[in-house]
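2024-03-11 09:14:02 INFO worker-7 job=invfold-0412 stage=load source=structure_tokens
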């Protein structure tokens, strides 16, 4: 299955136009969580611009499969080391 990983805010969308061919929804979820986890390892100044954004994963026809709210992930993550 081909999945697309879009970054979406109330005012802008950064669309993934290429997507990735993945085995299943579980692989897409694991990949999305890994990407968000990597973002959270940045400094607060680097993370701040992403507040209010979400990572939306959709399939080829464009239907949303799931969403990860960046703010929710930030609240669950310990502060990055300086």
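2024-03-11 09:14:09 INFO worker-7 stage=emit residues=82
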């Amino acid at each position: 299955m081909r999945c697309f990983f879009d970054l979406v805010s109330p005012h802008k969308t950064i669309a993934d136009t290429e997507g990735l061919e993945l085995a299943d929804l579980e692989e897409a979820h694991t990949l999305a969580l890994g990407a968000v986890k990597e973002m959270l390892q940045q400094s607060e100044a680097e993370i701040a611009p992403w507040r209010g954004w979400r990572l939306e994963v959709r399939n080829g026809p464009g239907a949303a499969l799931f969403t990860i709210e960046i703010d929710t992930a930030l609240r669950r993550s310990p502060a990055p080391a300086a």
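2024-03-11 09:14:09 INFO worker-7 stage=report msg="The mean pLDDT is 87."
2024-03-11 09:14:10 INFO worker-7 job finished
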